[in-house]
Write a structure and sequence with these properties.
single chain; 72% helix; mainly alpha
């Protein structure tokens, strides 16, 4: 009992739920983490899939990125309308049930549950892959690292909205800051001519004799069969 309370905190009464609110700064980081986490791995995965379709398919990366940006814009407008229509709070389940009926509401709720599960699994897998790529010695422990990350996320969420919000807001803003720093450094090096020459990228391309040399190791079954 003592260990459980130390781990996840003291249970809150229902009347205390109204006090568990987040500031705008913290809420922005928490509720945008789903979209932000995709930035860390979705671009690479999209390019890897397009590479399997052939080098010409890489030209679709820009149109696909623009389509995703348009989808995010539509989602933002939709959320703004939902906030004004349901000022006391309302998600996809409530909106769908109130306007379309119980079955569409349950469908939206089921889709959200699947999305939550996939977000955790894909984000953790991508994070562990990035960590083991930087530290190859940890590659054999990737399953344990993934389970540890899921356990930490679970425990932090069980401690309540405010504590979990403060915990996750820091890494989110750190990621946004590092992303801006990376872009500024890249544009700065481009303007002063400090980027590596194009021959370096040309030398890393697969040779004609081995067109899949850069990817067969990563996708052995997909490429060979």
């Amino acid at each position: 009992m003592f260990f459980r309370r130390w781990l996840i905190g003291i249970p809150l009464a229902t009347v205390q739920a109204s006090r568990e609110r987040l500031s705008k700064v913290v809420a922005l980081a928490v509720f945008s983490s789903d979209a932000l986490s995709s930035v860390a791995y979705a671009t690479e995965e999209m390019l890897l899939v397009l590479v399997l379709a052939g080098s010409l398919a890489l030209g679709w990366s820009i149109p696909l990125s623009l389509a995703i940006t348009l989808l995010l814009g539509i989602l933002t407008v939709s959320y703004r309308q939902t906030i004004h229509a349901y000022p006391s709070g309302g998600g996809s389940y409530i909106v769908a049930k109130a306007n379309l009926g119980e079955l569409p509401g349950l469908t939206a709720a089921a889709a959200l549950m699947i999305d939550y599960i996939l977000t955790v699994s894909v984000s953790v897998a991508a994070g562990v892959a990035a960590l083991t790529s930087a530290m190859p010695a940890l590659h054999r422990h990737r399953v344990g690292l993934a389970l540890l990350a899921i356990g930490i996320v679970t425990v932090v969420n069980l401690r309540g909205i405010r504590e979990s919000g403060r915990t996750f807001a820091g890494p989110t803003y750190l990621f946004i800051g590092s992303l801006f720093v990376m872009l500024m450094v890249g544009f700065g090096r481009f303007l002063v001519g400090g980027l590596p020459p194009g021959q370096a990228a040309e030398a890393q391309r697969p040779s004609p004799a081995s067109p899949c040399s850069s990817y067969c190791g990563r996708f052995p079954l997909a490429v060979r069969h």
